[in-house]
Amino acid sequence: MNNVELLQQLIRFPTVSSESNLDLIHYIAQLLEEKGIQVQVIQDPVQAKAALFATVGDPTIPGILLSGHSDVVPVEGQAWSVDPFSATLVEDKLFGRGACDMKGFIAVALNLMLSLADKPLARPVHLAVSFDEELGCLGVKDMLLHLQHLKVEPLLCIVGEPTEMNIALGHKGKAAYRVHCCGEEAHSSRAPLSVNAIYLACDFIAKLRELQQQFKVRGARDDEYDIPYSTVHVGKIEGGKAINIVPQSCQFDFEIRHLAQDDLDKELTTLFSQAQHIVEAARAELPASRAEIQFTCMSRYPGLNTDASHHAIQLLKKWSADDAKFIRVAFGTEGGLFSQALNAPVVVCGPGSIEHAHKPDEFVALSQLHDCEQVLTQFIYDICQ
Ligand SMILES: [Zn+2]
């Protein structure tokens, strides 16, 4: 199968994050095993999902790790002009959910693995396929533990999210939290005698806005990004029942998108203790009342900040198209997690454009698949033979 035919097969597995990806994983495993490549399927203990890890060459030597996520975002409510899971070829574009984000890269990487199966390699090539990336990089974590256990320390990880084959060296990390503020209901005529949950929320949101100012004025700075500092944002809030009831509950969601250079753990610790002070102040004012602020982490992944001077990255650049650039990307990837867990340089580089991801009529240009195949093949033959 050529790359286009293989990508069509992959798109026809509707691996939306809410569904099982096992059929797709078993399909990939079977193709690899038919070529005698050893495959490890890392089953999720609670869901019908799995990650896959495979190696050609000697796994004890540092090599090249090619990484992709198998899940795709939903298509409901989107106006597609073709069936999103039929993989429709129209002239020089292949349309389908996951075409660019990111089964296109998986198809090229998988075909490359198959072609290397019987070649002598001085360095190994690994393929890592995760799940639940679109839910906040959740499904890669067990696989990374497994790779740490195997002592896999690649020379370079390539995360094949769509960059139009530019080489992304960085992206911001993200932490998203849901905050529950609890006060006590009372008749609004007696408002000063009860803790107002909306006031707790407002006081804490004021702290979030202060943190945004601090990031802007004193935080790390990277002018390669459109917004060159870490950002803080409250995106959703609900609380209270009626104008004449002191609200007992208010809930809101916030996120921090941070430069890898900012210490997010330290900032979160400060935020949590500020919340505690708000609660203590409310309790001190109204000792008989209930006041609480609770946090639930919804998703979290680290930022990526890779140094371009690494030998393997320079070699990848050498084999890239003349107009390929080192860039930063605005979207998050599993790259920061790979970098932390495997102690290896990580770049994000794959076919297609993020402009077409997550949208109706998602597509990848066939020329992008071809470029990806050329670049990866030449780079890997150079570094692994
Ligand atoms: Zn993606």
Automatic annotation (TrEMBL):
GO molecular function per UniProt: acetylornithine deacetylase activity
EC number: 3.5.1.16
Pfam families, sorted: M20_dimer, Peptidase_M20
Domain of life assignment: Bacteria
Keyword Mitochondrion: no
Residue ranges of domain Peptidase M20 dimerisation in the record: 170-274
Cross-referenced InterPro entries: AcOrn-deacetyl (IPR010169), ArgE/DapE_CS (IPR001261), Bact_exopeptidase_dim_dom (IPR036264), Peptidase_M20 (IPR002933), Peptidase_M20_dimer (IPR011650), Peptidase_M20A (IPR050072)
Cofactor(s) required for function per UniProt: Zn(2+)
CDD domains per UniProt: M20_ArgE (cd03894)
Annotated keywords: Amino-acid biosynthesis, Arginine biosynthesis, Cobalt, Cytoplasm, Hydrolase, Metal-binding, Zinc
Family: Belongs to the peptidase M20A family. ArgE subfamily.
Protein name: Acetylornithine deacetylase
Natural source organism: Vibrio tritonius
